[in-house]
Amino acid sequence: MAALETGSRDVRHGEARENATGFVGALLPVRSASKDKLMKRKIACDQEEKFSLVRRMMLRPRTGKKAQSTMAVRTRSQRSSRATVLKSDETSSDLKEDLDKEQLYEPKVGDIVLFPGKWPGEHRVGVVENVTSRETAARSIVDIQPLQRLGQTSTYVEGAKRKAVWMESGDVISCNDAEYDEKNKVWHLPALPSLMADDQNRQLSLVERNQGLQEYERLKRWLIQGTVATSALGTAYYAVRNGVVETIAFAAGSLAGVLYLTLLQRSVDRIRPAALSPEQPIATTASDEDGERQHIAPVFPVARYALPFLLILGLFSIREFVDSARQRLDDRDTSAAASVERSGSSEALLKRQVRFARNLPDLSRVPPPVEAIVVTGPSGVGKSTLIARLLAEFPTHLGYSVSTTTRAPRSGEIDGISYHFVSKEKFLADVEAGKFIEYASVYGNYYGTTFDCRPGCDPGVASPDMPSDQSLDAFFIWIAPPSLHELERRLRERETESPTELARRLAAARQEMQRADRSPNFDIRIVNEDFEVAYGKLRRVVLALLHGQR
Ligand SMILES: Nc1ncnc2c1ncn2[C@@H]1O[C@H](COP(=O)(O)OP(=O)(O)OP(=O)(O)O)[C@@H](O)[C@H]1O
């Protein structure tokens, strides 16, 4: 053992260092080497030593007591054996002999192997798909396709998701006993190679894992409780501040959120380590949950990824539903208002007024910017129809000013409802007294609109044919027909005018429309082609005016 003797001599001369990296360093021919060369060789030997250790770690225990130890235990035992070698000045041939006793496992494509899972202490079974050896490293890279255990059986199948993992060859253990069933395309593993750590290590990893799981359970509870509490508060707030529909929409959204969170947690629960119970051996690769996962695998990922989109879609649908419900309620209230107007039911009227009052301003606090809203337009354009709808919708906020005329009442016309029928003298006296919003002389008779309105609230809606030039703090709206032809059709269909009267009204309408086009007195012009569209525009304007915006 010349080399060893050299080392021994160095030790004697005090030239060898304590940190000469063990017995391999002691094999260096120190005397004949320069300092640089010495360092290079030392590094080479360091690597060589590491390599030998790596090789020893990769050795798979086959028989005897050692076969029961884990890889971790083997690493420790390697260290202690190395110390023993140093102490006892064992020779390199002794080491080789020691190494030769063990066999180095080199995975091959198609081998069934046991490899570490992502959880501490977890091990899984897989089939080797590829082995890539590396020139610069002792270990090769092994691509492994994980297998799934079927329930508690010793049968393994390929997972639904084919996703290979890679390991270093030293980290995998061969499962020699695996048998492939060609017909059913499954592997039978009568016994897994045991990887049990010593009891102390095992207990430690279990304690750590249980602590982690407890924290996770706490976090889960906290998340769900927090979301439920926030949802309940939000729903209560909506119930107090907004209507039923908004509250239902918010509650539905919250419920969907909680449901999604629960599903997400269930999904996370399913990727727990295979062996959770302390009684269950850590080396078990898969459990019942894996089998269960296999069944739900194709369904659950789809649901998981589709759920956020479904939620968004659902929220949009709820919004649509809320809008349409609101519209339906509005329509119902409007028609209810009209029927209540007719039937005169004070209870229904009160209910309707309360409902509308929620969205309408308190006029004592928000004074409207105008004293009157004047709706003007040619005869037959639809003024009365539009105003009737407005009055039905805002009965407490709008009143209607009945026009005053000096013409004689026609059959069926009632004084005070159709018109205020007054004498020419009285009319002119009221004009002098400034009682009229507007007045005009038409075909020898006076027509005018006063500030008095029914049922006596402010602002009123007046329906004069044309606004007068007198100064009035009113908002003037011009309602135009889509065409003269359509105007004539409406008047004819109304059947309230004689042919002569109809012709006269149409001629007057032509002139009024020309004057209205040039008149600077109108604040807004609305074409009444589609009734709902025209009413929608009118309604928005009136609401803005009621809320103090001009
Ligand atoms: N957008 C519309 N499309 C079709 N018909 C309409 C429309 N608006 C109103 N009408 C109809 O036109 C006719 C005339 O309407 P309305 O009596 O309200 O007009 P008016 O302007 O008040 O007339 P007048 O000034 O002579 O009282 C009614 O039969 C009404 O139902």
Automatic annotation (TrEMBL):
Q: Where is this region: Disordered?
A: 62-94
Which CDD domains does this one have? GMPK (cd00071)
Task: Identify the InterPro entries for this entry.
Answer: GK/Ca_channel_bsu, Guanylate_kin-like_dom, Guanylate_kinase_CS, P-loop_NTPase
Q: What keywords are assigned to this protein?
A: Kinase, Transferase
Q: Which GO terms describe its molecular function?
A: GMP kinase activity
Q: Which domain of life is it from?
A: Eukaryota
- One GO cellular component term noted in the UniProt record for this chain: cytosol
- Where does the secretion signal sit in this chain? none
In this chain the Guanylate kinase-like domain maps to: 370-543
Pfam families associated with the record: Guanylate_kin (PF00625)
Family recorded in the similarity comment? Belongs to the guanylate kinase family.
Under what name is this protein listed? Answer: Guanylate kinase
Give the lineage: Eukaryota, Rhodophyta, Bangiophyceae, Cyanidiales, Cyanidiaceae
